[in-house]
Design goal:
about 190 residues; alpha/beta; 5 helices; disordered C terminus
Length: about 190
């Protein structure tokens, strides 16, 4: 993975919490840094965003990102420069993906603490990322951590969703995980968000 550190318009945790809109957009210097770090147009923009739990990102994002990038490359897809973002929100993926021209943007983001785990990771994806996408345009795979949704199951689900998103040209409420569910239960907890 080829990381590049970028910043949102939220310059502190207080601003991030009080002004969610600032966490959805990059500052100008970061826009330029991402443009310069991405000389080619990738199929997938894969971002790592602290969100509401930096602990989740610290503990789980690298193995999930590395495993997902490997799986996508095995499928013939390209993963570009990986933005690593402090004080970012889910919808930031719209701007990130638009800047590099990706077909699909995937964000690994720390979920809200207190929902059963203080360090649970979520993954959001959107097809055709651009500013103005809505939550209905996104798919979410949540509760990624060893005691919740294991890394391998999350990577399997995300790789399937990304591939199908590109093949079908959709994401969000029009893209459902319609793989067959095995005798041992669902491969992953999948939510639209």
């Amino acid at each position: 993975l080829d990381p590049v550190h970028v910043e949102t318009r939220a310059d502190s945790r207080v601003v991030y919490l009080q002004r969610p809109d600032f966490g959805r957009r990059l500052d100008e210097a970061s826009r330029e840094r991402l443009k310069n770090a991405s000389p080619t147009t990738p199929d997938i923009l894969l971002a790592i965003v602290d969100g509401l739990s930096a602990d989740a990102v610290h503990r789980h994002a690298v193995p999930v990102a590395a495993g997902l990038a490997k799986r996508l490359c095995e499928r013939g897809l390209t993963v570009g420069t990986v933005p690593v973002v402090r004080y970012g929100r889910v919808a930031l993926q719209d701007e990130l993906g638009e800047i590099v021209g990706a077909k699909v943007a995937v964000s690994l983001i720390g979920e809200r603490p207190g929902l059963g785990s203080p360090d649970s990771l979520g993954a959001y994806l959107v097809h055709g990322p651009r500013i103005g996408r809505t939550d209905a345009d996104r798919n979410c795979v949540s509760n990624i951590w060893p005691a919740g949704l294991p890394y391998d199951a999350a990577i399997d689900t995300l790789a399937w969703l990304v591939t199908e998103s590109i093949n079908r040209g959709v994401s969000g409420v029009t893209l459902k995980d319609d793989r067959r569910i095995g005798a041992s239960g669902p491969a992953a907890k999948l939510e639209n968000g």
